[in-house]
Description:
By secondary structure, this protein is mainly α.
Amino acid sequence: MKETVLIRFGQRIRELRKARNLSQEQLAELTGFHRNYIGMIERGERNPALVNIEIFAHAFEMSLSELLIL
């Protein structure tokens, strides 16, 4: 179950990033995260902390609840 949530969250981040025509590098600049971390999130290899999820939400100009619609 944990892995499924991580993969779905990563897919959501990738979809939002691509919908906004952002590269991983550009999203990294917006969030302050390393590009490698963005890639690991998108592949479901990292379990981001809640504070980091909030940073993604702000970068995509949406609420936490909007971001977490998986």
